[in-house]
Each structure stands twice: as C-alpha cells, then as structure tokens.
Amino acid sequence: MAQENITDELGRTFELEMPFASNQKEYLDAIIPMVRHWSEDLREMDYYENYPWLEISDEDDFHKTILHFFNSGGEYLRSIEGNVKGGSWRYLDEANKLMLEYGGKTELYELAFLVNKRFFILKKHGNPEKFNQRKYLMMVFEPVGRGLEWRDAMELLFNTYRTNNTWFRYTLIIVLLIILLFVLWSVL
To answer: Can you give the pTM of this predicted structure?
Structure first.
C-alpha cells in the first residue's frame, strides 16, 4: 500500500497541470503561448481548407452545432444546426491574416493556433473585447470535437503542450535514471 502511494506521488510530481481559468478566453490566453510554436501557418491552407470545423464556445447561450467550412476558391460556408449560409474567405498573404465575409459583415482574423485535423483557432484583429465581442473563434476538427464541452476542448488543447513538451520528458527520464542508479547502488 505504501509503495502505491509513493509511485502515485512521484507520478503527480511530474504531471503537468493545466493552468486554472474561469472561462474559455482566459484558458486560450494561457495555453496558446505554450503551444503556439507547434502551430502551422495560415499560408499552409492544406491544414484547414476543405475540412469541417466545429465551433467551440463557453457562452451561456451557445448550444448550437456550428460548422465552418473554408472551401477551395474562397467559399466560406457556415452551418448552424444544418442550416447553411454562404460567404467568402480570403487569405491576405502580405498581412498573414484571414478575412471572413458572412451575413453582411466582414471580419479580420489572425491565426492563434492551427494543427492539422485538430485545432483551428483564430484571434479577431484589434481589440474586440473593447466592443464586447469575442476575442477568439475556436474551432475543432469535427470528428475530434463532436460531443466535447468547451472545458474538454481546453484539456485537449493543453494535451498538445503535455505531449510535445520535451523538457518534461527529458526531466522524467533523468529522474528515473537517478532513481534506478540509486537503487542499484544501494543493492550492491
């Protein structure tokens, strides 16, 4: 029994805890800087073009299934509970930004994070919070995101950091080697 407690404690010591936040924006503000360097770039359209992207939000009145499609040729489709409306999207090469035209309005976004068939997170350009607008448009590849609550999506995003953090892996290996050497030395 004592052996299990020691190994459990050792395991928890090396576990990377997700930062605490009270809403999706705070989580994204905390996690995106940690994972950003693993992101693809907007110019690499193969990573987001022609895929169904499921919108994830923590807003109280957000209970709809919203899919976004960034199709070839600049066609943008937005499906809300299966009702589809069209618009257009355009990658602005020199600015490395994405422009969405939909429902009579045009919005400018920059990339926050993109991983093939996982996450496509856009950040609205400027200071949208000043005008009571959402800072992020968070989308998850539909087969991955289907059935996820927003907190589960944050955990999945943080797992990108957990699984790619080589510093953590090397530290764990070094500590385990030290323990193994200590055990071998005490036996001999």
So the answer is: 0.79
